[in-house]
Write a structure and sequence with these properties.
By secondary structure, the protein is of the alpha+beta class. It is built from 6 helices and 12 strands.
Length: about 260
């Protein structure tokens, strides 16, 4: 008898032609659309199809599209995830490819999954192994997109004259107090660091201000933070021209430096 996968492929060809034709009879316009079981057998052999949505042939992985040409890093982007997938699911699924430092799922302002996440491996080789083995493979019914995490670049120098208050922009919305403490751990003479919060939504606005005891300390901090990345986002640095404490967190006051407003 004809295998189920071949019968399925033959029926797909027939249905496809009927849907697109004004006739009730299937019409073949080229050799790849011959509406016969024998043609379906040949097509299945040529394409390696094994049924609807199948991706594994003879226990092997299908030819995957080459990942985009990105700078190799130990951090991996995993896209096209089911919204129900958790960081723990990612860790279990990718643990075989190397030591994992952390996993996270990108979330929107409501705390819901955006359908993609990131895995930080201990080394670049583990990340490369994960990409080679899992890009374009199926996980929970979805074809994964796995690649190196795209790095953002920031070569813009501070535009405002130095002051005792440093503006830090391009902060990831998922950044926590622990992340902020780690960022400023080795920086001296910090009086206060405040993350701007939108009063209407309660969500971070993506920037913060840091007050220092003197201008020299703020300049030194800017030098130390230059080129730093948090959650793969390069920090944007500048000096505030006026005290940043007034109306902070209102969602309207205490704005970013004029040159940077369009970025937030």
């Amino acid at each position: 008898s004809t295998p189920l996968a071949i019968r399925q492929q033959a029926s797909v060809i027939l249905a496809f032609k009927r849907f697109n034709s004004s006739s009730n009879e299937p019409v073949a316009t080229d050799a790849s659309e011959q509406p016969s079981v024998s043609s379906a057998v040949a097509a299945a052999a040529e394409t390696g199809a094994t049924g609807f949505g199948a991706d594994i042939v003879d226990g092997t992985r299908p030819n995957s599209r080459p990942p985009l040409d990105l700078q190799p890093t130990n951090a991996v982007y995993v896209g096209n995830l089911l919204f129900e997938v958790t960081p723990q699911d990612l860790e279990r699924e990718f643990a075989a490819y190397g030591d994992i430092v952390s996993t996270r799922i990108a979330q929107d302002a409501r705390g819901l999954s955006k359908g993609f996440g990131y895995i930080e491996f201990k080394d670049v080789e583990s990340a490369r192994n994960a990409i080679e083995q899992r890009n374009q493979t199926i996980f929970e019914g979805r074809r994964l997109i796995v690649n190196y995490m795209a790095k953002t670049r920031n070569t813009v120098k501070p535009k405002n004259p130095p002051s005792k208050t440093l503006f830090i922009g391009n902060l990831a919305f998922e950044m926590t107090d622990a992340d902020l403490n780690k960022l400023f751990r080795d920086i001296a003479n910090v009086i206060d660091v405040r993350v701007a919060i939108d009063r209407r939504t309660g969500q971070p606005r993506g920037f913060a201000h840091a007050d220092f005891t003197d201008v020299e300390s703020a300049v030194k901090a800017a030098e130390m933070l230059e080129g730093k990345e948090v959650y793969n986002r390069a920090l944007r640095l500048d000096y505030s021209l006026s005290p940043s404490r007034q109306n902070f967190g209102s969602g309207r006051g205490d704005r970013a430096p004029r040159e940077d407003r369009s970025s937030f």
